[in-house]
Write a structure and sequence with these properties.
Length: about 100
């Protein structure tokens, strides 16, 4: 995994395939400017975590393990904290802006 964002870090990633296939995948996160205008459309941290939680649950049904269950719990905990952050920002009226 490498950050391949040209102008700003943390928005565009190149992900290696499991067996090192020649065609890496890209993951684009939404990118906004200081005014909240969308520069590049993409996904969110929350969507990626929801996907990972689902995948871990599916894999855990096939081959249950304590470690997998803990990983699901931690991914769900990360979602809880990100959703709390968003709710707090909505209450403060700064969601969708670059204000702290």
């Amino acid at each position: 995994m490498i950050d391949i964002g040209r102008n700003s870090k943390g928005h565009l990633y190149q992900l290696d395939n499991f067996n090192g296939a020649d065609h890496p995948q890209t993951l684009q996160f939404i990118e906004k400017d200081a005014a909240g205008n969308t520069l590049n459309d993409g996904t969110t941290n929350e969507e990626v975590l929801l996907m990972l939680a689902d995948r871990l649950k599916v894999l855990g049904e096939r081959l249950p393990s304590r470690e997998n269950s803990i990983a699901v719990t931690k991914v769900e905990e990360a979602l809880l904290w990100l959703n709390k952050r968003t709710a707090d920002r909505v209450l403060r009226g700064v969601e969708g802006t670059m204000k702290a």
